[in-house]
Structure formats: structure tokens, C-alpha cells
Amino acid sequence: MSKIITTPYDVAEHLRTPEEMAAYLEVSIEEANGDAALVAKALGDIARAKGMSQIARDTGLSRESLYKALSGERSPTFDTILKVIRALGLTLRAEPINTNSQ
Q: pTM surpassing 0.90?
């Protein structure tokens, strides 16, 4: 029996367009169910896809602090989230939750 060789999956390698990045973030927010660290991890994936050094320059934050904040192991400040979203060329929107069950 031959060994199966696997490699870790890195979503950042598959986020190529702004539309893919926005869709990934949107799904992550929907699936997070209030887990801010999961949303931060998704932002970290998108930031790595775009280039963490560039995002660090655009936000005025250090690469190291961005890696930590967007690791998914902690919840970054809302200020950091807003800076990163803007640097990624994305926007944050709100819409009402549909509470009508028909």
C-alpha cells in the first residue's frame, strides 16, 4: 500500500479577485454566529492573499501585530477590523435580518 501524501489547504492561495475575497468574508461573517475570532481569521486569510506587508502599510499597523490580530486566536479591536477591511478594498454593510418565517 502506497502512502498518501497530503498538503495543508490554504484558502489564501485561492482568493484571487476582490469578488472572491468579498464573498469569502460574507460567508465567514454569516457562519461565524457571533465568533469575532472566526471573522478575524477570514480577514487574515484575505490579507495574506493580498499581501500582508501591503496591508500593514495601508493600515499603519505592523505586520507582526496584524498576524497576531488576524490569527483567529484572539478578537482584534473593531478599529483594527475597520482599518483592515478598508485596506483590503472592501466595505462593511448592514442589512436587516429577515425575521419573518413564512
A: no
